[in-house]
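User: Could you walk me through two proteins back to back? I'd like the raw sequence and the structure tokens for each, with a short line separating them so I can tell where one ends and the next begins.

Assistant: Of course. Protein one, sequence then structure:
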Amino acid sequence: MEIGAQIKARRQELNMTQEMLANKLNVGRSTVSNWEIGRNYPDLQLIVSISDVLNLSLDTLLGKESEVVKDIARDTNIRKSQSRKIKILSALLIVVILAGLFGIYKVVEYRDISSPEQILSLQAYEDRLVITTDLPFYRSVVGYTIGNSPDGNDTIELSLSSQIDLSLDHQQKIVVETDSLEEDMGIRSLKTVDIVDQNGIIKTFEL
């Protein structure tokens, strides 16, 4: 009698359903069904568990048919090989996903502020400008670029950059030092500050 028939006969002797046996072996009911109809065989580790659960000796369970043992060994090797392949493919997929996420992160890590709604106010002092922004919780304002405006010496152009910031700082203000401005273009002579991005002016402040 083949192993599937042995499992079925002993299970029925014990008045055990396929579901009950599956639960004891931590497998699905369809797995037990496949064993019993000879569609496939349990692996060697499960055979030991089946022997214990059904109180059936391994000699009785396996019989003396060496072909069955060979089939089980072959089936076990195939499953192990498939399991290794799945693990390798899963690891490669995880690497690809992580690499993609890292690439996306690097692309969006630094970004110029380009929305006028994200710039709330600008306060001018003798040697500095203080700008308050309204950025998403995951970004902080971290830098600026200051330069002359083509509109004249009483106007400067200012671009602001933000960075992904997953800390609790969430820096919303930035101090722009104006020491670098030419003397005839100092903070006292300024009338206008244009906040710009790569496409042009996004917001203008009159001082």
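----
Protein two, same layout:
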Amino acid sequence: MINTLTQYSCIIFDLDGTLIDSFAAINEAFDAVFIRFSGRTIPFEESNSYVGVPLEELLGEIFGKENQQEAVNIFRNKYKEVCYEKTFLIKGVKELLYYLKNQGKSLNIATNKTGSISRSLIKYLKIYDLFDHIYGVYDGLEGKPSPQMINKIINETGFSKESSILVGDSPIDIMAAKNAEIAVLSVTSGNHTYDELKKSEPDFLCDSIGNILPPVKG
């Protein structure tokens, strides 16, 4: 799979479930919102199913447009409290990123997480300097599946769409890549199974981002 990925010059990664495991922090943030409006916490599996969906749209649909902004504020405030201590790089990610960077690839991030928080987390995890561009919502760009973030990264790096690929863990990522007319590699490091991702017909599919780079022998 690494030979497939290195055919591309511009590699754009999703964040949650692709590069980082932030599900515990996200679950706490959703719990805070559900306690406020529904008087209950939610199972881990339920909060996981919401990951990757644009937050405003999601919370507005669940709690009503009249409560949307309050729900978003509660989520973001709680998430900021807990995200640093409860976010980790997925196994194998750092090694993969350094390998690709040493191959001269342009590494970038397009996420439906808030852009400022995403950049702060990447700095905290000490991999910020590996990336050329990191974009998220509230950066003046539409969230995925809109292709806006992907198109902006491709334009700013100067590479063609044919030499660009998106790596993500959800059907939304697949849709975004198709909307941007670039290749997509799906990984099951997040909350979607191999079969679920296969139904969305990505160009490439890997059972784990940690398995893209073969283990070092010896």
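The CA atoms of residues 97 and 130 lie 7 Å apart.

Let me know if you want the two compared in more detail.
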